[in-house]
Specification:
22% strand, alpha+beta, 61% helix, single chain, 5-stranded antiparallel β-sheet, two-stranded antiparallel sheet
């Protein structure tokens, strides 16, 4: 191959002056006018530069004077064609010298020429090799990305699990005066803690794998795992301490449940006592009276239960002096509700007795 200089045609743009013919609007004066620095005569032809507004037009006289005349003093006539010199970009064809490489065809001996089949096979082999290399690089990159994702998941899981354990530590370490609430919260914690214990095993397994995949990060990975174990061990100790604190709380919970049951029974009987006592005849009143006596018989076991609750409360106070205020308040609430129920039963019994007497009086029996 040799380099030679050859002529190459190309186009370039240059600015040239050209003469163009353009139409220029004209007006003719209908009346003579003097003013605005102008003096025009009737019938004078002038160039119209601009219709400034509906009252005044801008004109130019043949002597070159510009100014304004009243619009109703002139009228438009045919435009005048004038030759104007303007600058315009013109595309010009030109030729330039460029250096080009010239290849010389050489005849190759037939003995050294490859057949079409050989050329195709070589090309196919080259394509296959390129494809295999691309596949290999793709697998390597995929493995790198998967390992990086595994490392990211490990760090994220450590951070999330550590935060979860810290939150749980704060929750069960919080002071709760209500033993029932504290016990319920602790039972919920035990359920959650049991469900999340496998997370620590998974973190340990992932840490061992990552130490092999990323030996340069072994120190950091093992450090993260140790930190998680430290927080976990602290949570286990806190769990053991909380179990000791809540030992025997079953009696407190039983007392509170007994109070709730008694209050429910009292409410149920109270609703029955609020039924309508009015009746228009002796038979109905006596039926209501018999029904009321049945309700009064049902109050006897509730009274016994109120006494049992009071005794149970005293026993719990002896075992858990810290619960005294709460238990005494619950006992007073139960006692007050029972007394209200007793009063309501007595009042209704008296109303029914009065109703029976009234019916006997009105019927003349």
């Amino acid at each position: 191959a040799t380099e030679v200089w050859e002529d190459e045609p190309f186009e370039r743009t240059e600015i040239q002056r050209v003469i163009e013919e353009r139409k220029v609007p004209q007006v003719k004066t209908l009346y003579p006018y003097q003013g605005q620095g102008l003096d025009v005569k009737k019938g004078e032809v002038m160039f119209l530069l601009d219709k400034t507004n509906q009252d005044w037009w801008n004109i130019r006289k043949n002597n070159g004077d510009n100014g304004y005349v009243p619009a109703n003093y002139v009228k438009e006539i045919d435009s005048k064609i004038v030759s104007v010199e303007v600058k315009k970009p013109i595309v010009v064809k030109d030729v330039r010298k460029v250096k080009k490489t010239q290849y010389i065809k050489q005849k190759t001996p037939l003995s050294s020429q490859k057949s079409g089949k050989d050329i195709i096979e070589e090309r196919q082999t080259a394509i296959q090799e390129s494809y295999d290399l691309l596949n290999k690089l793709s697998r390597e990159r995929q493995e790198i990305l998967q390992n990086s994702l595994q490392l990211f998941d490990f760090y994220s899981e450590c951070e999330d699990f550590n935060k979860w354990m810290k939150d749980k530590s704060k929750a069960i370490a919080a002071d709760e005066n209500d033993v029932a609430k504290a016990t319920k919260a602790f039972e919920k914690f035990l359920t959650d803690f049991s469900a999340n214990k496998k997370r620590l095993e998974q973190i340990d397994t992932a840490a061992k794998e990552l130490e092999v995949i990323f030996p340069e990060l072994k120190k950091d990975v093992s450090g993260r795992a140790r930190e998680t174990h430290k927080i976990y061990d602290g949570l286990v100790k806190l769990q053991e301490q909380q179990e000791k604190n809540l030992e025997g709380s079953a009696s407190v919970i039983f007392f509170q449940k007994s109070c709730e049951d008694v209050c429910d029974w009292i409410t149920e009987k109270s609703e029955k006592l609020e039924m309508d006592d009015l009746a228009k005849d002796l038979t109905t009143v006596k039926a209501l009276q018999r029904k009321h006596k049945g309700i009064e018989r049902e109050l006897a076991p509730i009274k016994d239960k109120v006494g049992q609750v009071s005794q149970l409360g005293q026993d719990v106070i002896d075992s858990f002096p810290a619960e005294r205020e709460n238990i005494e308040q619950r006992t007073r609430d139960v006692q007050e509700k029972w007394e209200m129920l007793e009063n309501k039963a007595r009042e209704r019994s008296k109303r029914l007795e009065d109703a029976v007497g009234m019916q006997l009086f009105t019927s003349g029996v």
